[in-house]
Amino acid sequence: MRRTAPAVALAVLLGLPAAVTAVLLRGPAGYAELGLADPGAALRVMVPVLRTVVDLAGAATVGGLLVALVVATPPAGDDAFSPTGRRALGLARWSAWVGAGAAALSVPAVLAETLGGRLRLGPDLVTVMLARGEPVSWLLAAVLGVAAAVAAGEVRRWTGGAAVLGLAVAGLLAPVATGHAADGLGHDLFLPALAAHVVAAAAWLGTLGVLALVGGDARAWWRAARIGTAAGIVTVVSGAVAAGVALTAPGGEGVGPDYTVLVLLTAALAVVAGGVLLRRRTGRVAWPVELGVLAVVVGLSAVASRAVPPVQAPGAASAPAAILGYGLAAAPDPWVLATSWRPELTSLTLALVLAALYAGGLRRLAREGARWPVGRSVAWFAGCALLVVATSSGLGRYGPAVLSIHVAGHMLVATAVPLLWSLGAPVVLARRTLREAPPGGREGPAEWLEHVLAAPTLRVAVNPVVALVLVVGSPALLYLTPVFSLTQPLGWLQPLMTLWFLLVGVLFLGPLVAGPPNGPGLPPLARLTFLLASMPLHALVGLDMLAADHPISRTPVLPADGGSGQVFVDDFFVRLRLPWAPDLLADQHVAGVLAWLLGDLPLLAAVLVVLVGWSRQARTEDADRRADLLAGLGSR
Questions:
Q1: What is the mean pLDDT of each successive set of 10 residues along the chain, which is 636 residues long?
Q2: N or C: which end of the chain has fewer CB within 10 A?
Q3: Is the pTM for the entire model greater than 0.90?
Q4: Inter-axis angle of helices 187-214 and 83-114, to 10 degrees?
């Protein structure tokens, strides 16, 4: 570690002069387009430099946790972490503290940048902070960094380390949610692509840097190279998607030329880093070269985050396109819903990855000559396809603009997709196909799966009472409280809400339909009781939406001048200014009916599945009893 520390530090610190040089070369470009005054050279340099520090520290935190969890794993059955993994956890903890400090400093720096270089204390400062959003995201990143640093010092289990990794990733993504990717034409594609780009680049850079510091054997370097290759592919592909969206907006010609240059230069360096990775795996290039190139990419990306992309050009987007990221020209009749596809990258990627993993398991079973029920495979792939339809077809495209379509998509994701996935029995397939580590061998995917399934948090979440509260309480909290009106304008939150509905549906229906991953589970009668109990509760959500005498999309908004005047009510759907916009209250009544039907019909199907399984179990038990009786008579 002592021999490699200077090389790692030198390579990583290349990101800082790269950021400073890029800032000085581009000058005060971008501030006029955003309606802001030039804050001065000091702040123009300070803000991207602080972001570079946050990103580099976040990469070290993510990399340290990946090294501890995946790369330098101990032999199966031993301690949760190897000595190398413990050192990596220590690095992750200190990196999280550094990142939290830089994020905290970014709050006043960004506020001062917004106010033209002068930070004026007073009540108006809070209004500016909330209006801009970006300072709040940096404050959140600082809080998440502190939480990750504290938790990393207390990790004792593999699942605890995985939870800290989630905190570290959330800290990296908080500033992305309020950055330039969250606004303008195509931001529904730009934002998730950039989020994947940031996380993948952090995993690539961090894993390599931390392993170089803590050291590792050939097996650890092999695993790190596998992670680097996968993360490198995601980095390049997601970066290409983000750049393609950001640079091809109609009406943005001539706007943000500095952004174009920075993006193209960063993309070229990312490709170079990928080539260096391939040559390093063959022993032709040393790892400090790859580390240095990646650090420069991080620095240039931090500067690019302060530039104005063409998608934010004045007049580049209509009202719905500016709010949603795309236009909606035609009314949503059945033909339009069936043909108006627009990829929702988060759910689409999840569906493709899960389908590929399941197909890989089936292929391994086929090579071994084992058989797998066709019905299970059909159910799993149908669930993946339905997830894509619910989020990327016209249902997903028009959902943010029409409440009834929004509810239909969420109910399919929360009930129908989890039911199909439960019938696919993915845990059974994984346990049959993932090879366990040999005696004395390092832990692998089979052991990691068992760590997750045995996690105390998961055991609590799959408890039928807890899962029932989650699966019924989630739509009730969203649609029957002001939560919907407050969150609907936050486009970056919509994919996360979809994933949440999907998760609670899996937690509820999985153990009731397919049985829990560990243990015999509830008897059939108890499973039927929970399923039947959830049906009227789902119906109540729909009935409440039917009985409401005002649209639930009304949003309380503070006065535009930031004063203490009366709070007025704005409506998100009205702000879209769609020429074919439906009557909000009538559409809400349709949404109530859909919430009732699409929430209860899959549950009714789940009841039938449990009844069929119970009937088969009873017939099997009767046959076993008759066989035992005949055997007893024969022995006499």
A1: 69 83 78 72 87 93 93 76 88 94 90 74 63 82 94 87 92 87 80 91 91 84 87 89 77 60 82 77 70 87 79 60 81 89 92 95 89 92 96 92 91 94 92 81 81 85 90 88 80 88 92 77 85 86 83 64 48 81 87 89 90 74 56 54
A2: C
A3: no
A4: 140
